Amino acid sequence: MRLLSWNVNGIRACVKKDFIPLMQKVDADVICLQETKANPEQVKEALAELHGYDIYCNSAQKAGYSGTAILARKQPLAVQNDMGQPEHDQEGRVIAAEYADYFLVTVYTPNSGNELKRLGYRQQWDSDFLAYLKKLEKKKPVVVCGDLNVANTDIDLARPKDNYNKSAGYMQQEIDGINAMLKADFVDSFRHLYPTAKKYSWWSYRAGARERDVGWRIDYFLTSAALKPRIKHADILKHVEGSDHCPVLLELV
What we know:
- The protein has seven helices and 14 strands.
- The protein has 253 residues and is of the alpha+beta class.
- It has a single domain, classed as 4-Layer Sandwich (Deoxyribonuclease I, Chain A), CATH 3.60.10.10.
- The strands form three sheets. A six-stranded mixed sheet has the order 3-4-2-1-14-13.
- Strand 7, helix 4 and strand 8 form a beta-alpha-beta unit.
């Protein structure tokens, strides 16, 4: 299975920047999208020219905000939106697709905000989302992908000292959240294959950050430990433009 995840920062805008031919070239079995910023009808309309995929969407109650989607060539056994927790289920941030031997979950993790106003909520989200994943894992292994809105270690962002405990995405509380996932036997597929690689998946639009590669690795594919032997390839497709994020890729045997 060839799996791709991408925070598109607005699917309707991204489609205008060669999204369709890019996805045709990548040729993934499943495409997971975050920050679609559209309702299901708008997502499906935007993707009308991308043939061969069933489209499953989850949108926020607030128009033009957040949202996720899964595009699948092979129809899942079942698809479920949200975590079943009202305090978290208003923003269209989670979709789980069940396949024969694992769950595929795509997530758009809440950002703590420029002034860290949502940091407390973010901590609760991290705890509740991990509990949700472990509940799924009782049935079968889990692949979770998406924009987790956190850099895990110093090598996951270009300027760690400037951002540690100062910027959303590199607060210790957020780092603790992803570390809790790793301690709960989830495997960071990219870091598993490339322990010391410096490669980023998000760049600010400011000051030519992408051109200078002043970025952050905040987009992930994590897998249950049971799937670790099946990790064949993982990559960050930094050459693919169309959003402030680039796609990340996982291949399972």
